[in-house]
Fold this sequence. Notes:
Residues 43-191 form the TRAF3-interacting protein 1 C-terminal domain. The chain is mainly α. It contains 3 helices and no strands.
Amino acid sequence: MDGKRMSEDEENDDEQFLVVEAVPPLPDVSETEREPAQELDTDEKHGGLVKKILETKKDYEVTPSSLKSKEQNLVSETARKKEREQVTREIERLRSSIQMVCRSSLPLGKIMDYIQEDVDAMQAELQGWRRENKEHAQALLQEQRATDRAVEPLKAELAELEQLIKDHQDKICAVKSNILKNEEKIQKMVTGINFSSRT
Length: 199
């Protein structure tokens, strides 16, 4: 009877153990290592077979969870390293971009500081050039007027001379035509004389 009761107790304890183990969350590796020793101490009333089953069960639970946790730790560690490297690369890229912007913006800022002075100076210089251009244009106009006044009598004289030249050319042409006519008359007279002398 005692032996039967022991086996029934063992079965009851076994069933209770399975129900209890399914409910709680997975403990840490350190807790799972501590629990087998505590449970073995409390379950000393069980037989040797039950002790072996419990030890095997605890070993099985400890080993896969520790392997899983180690694998998870390795995977999470590599993922963290990759994330850190990626973040570091992004930070370096951002830092270099910021440095480029700062290098470019410094000369631009200096230019913007002096641009108003430069614009004022350029406007003053433009006004000076416009004033000088206007003065030169007026001086040129005055010189053209003076030149036209000085050239006017010369133009009149030139027109008179051209008219005289034309008149002289007309006279020369008239004299030439008279000469040609006289030569024709002389030629006729000479041929007439030669003809009369032969007859």
